[in-house]
Model the fold of this input.
Amino acid sequence: MVSASAVFLAAYMVLGLALAYLLITKRAPRAWRNLWLAIHILLRIAAQISSVGFGVEGFRNVNWMYAYFVLGVEGTTSIIICWARFFIAFQMKVWGNSYLEPRRPEGMSTWRYQLYSLSSPVVFGHIFIITANVLLVVGGVVSLNNHTDTDDEYHPTKNTLGLRVAAYALFMSIVQSIAAYTIVEIRKCVSHGLKHTCLKIVLLVWPFLTIRVIFGILSCTVDIFDLNNPALYTSLDGFPSSYVAAESCLGIFPEFASATFLVISNSLWNHIQPAQDIEQTQTELQTDLLKADTPK
Done:
């Protein structure tokens, strides 16, 4: 477990340095989406440090396990929010507005806009994400908290299964919704003749986060992945290598790949041209052509 955790710890640190370089050199804007991306990277670095600690001490110090679980949940939540922010930012950049999070109309007061924004899709998305996050943390911690000081053994319970499955179901609905919005937006860009390479890279996050959420559901229902399975707690040294491998490949790697694609899309962000500028350029070009064809 220590070696796998150390690999991802180093990988996330490199990714964090890459994001910092893009921000410092102004190749990527200092915007909300990059704040969420930075938060995800920091949470994952902290989670991997906790994983290394748990790999060294095992169940002799369960605080490492609790820290890794909670930080991991927050890491999953933050990368989903970050993905949504990238989509909204693309719409804002190209069209000047986003139907997921509309700008305040001219002349509308602040308080009226606050009421108006409550009906926007992004608000409902945040409610779903927060609900899923709370359900997952509560369900997971309660499930892992069945430890007795008398026999140093874990006795996980199944009474939180519904909470965790419901949480991942909400995550799945959000991930598939963002993917659908992105596909529709790509088709819209194609129909208007707009470049959308950056958005295609953002869409690459979709299969990886889908795998991550599917693994979350499996971790609630399949014994070899389920933290409620007593067979995972037979050794004080930590979880079996089979569980560690599954967590690394199906849990951590998809999130790391998603964050990597978002960092790559950042490097191309300044090349996105607003639709208004393209239309203005086309109008000016047509005007110049008409002038050239007009006989003197």
